[in-house]
Amino acid sequence: MNQQYLINLKNPEWSAKRKVVLKRDSYKCRNCGSPNNLVVHHRQYHKQPDSGKYCNSWDYKLKYLITLCSQCHINGHLKFKIKHL
C-alpha cells in the first residue's frame, strides 16, 4: 500500500463511510459470514476524469463497497482482478 492510501484510511470521512457499509452488511463478511477481522473492500477503483487520480474512498457509492473478512479479502485479490475505471 502506498503512503497516501494509508493516510486516507484514517480520514474521518472514510471512517464514517466504512461504518455505514459495516452496518449495512450487519457487521459480517458478505462472502463467508464471519464477524471477525472485517475490512471494507472496493469492488472497483474509479479515477477522476479530469485529473486521472483515483477517487477518494469516501466518495464511492455504497454499491461499490462491500464488507469482507481479511481472509476473503486476500483470497478475492488473489482470484479476481479489480477493475480500474
CATH architecture: 3-Layer(aba) Sandwich
Strand order of the largest sheet: 1-3
Strand content: 15-25%
Radius of gyration based on Cα positions: 13 Å
Mean pLDDT: 85
Q: Tell me the number of strands.
A: 4
Helix-strand string: HHEEEHE
- Straight-line distance between termini: 19 Å
* Number of separate domains: 1
Shape: globular
Tally of helical segments:
3
Structural class: alpha+beta
What would CATH call the class? Alpha Beta
Give the biggest beta sheet.
2 strands, antiparallel
Helix content: 25-40%
Write a compact overview of the structure shown.
The protein is 35% helix and 16% strand.
Question: Could you describe the 3D structure shown?
Answer:
By secondary structure, this protein is α+β, with helices and mostly antiparallel strands. The protein has one domain (3-84): His-Me finger endonuclease fold. It contains 3 helices and 4 strands. The protein has helices at residues 3-9, 12-24, 70-79, and strands spanning 38-42, 44-45, 65-69, 83-84. The longest helix has 13 residues, at 12-24. The model has no long low-confidence stretch (mean pLDDT 85).
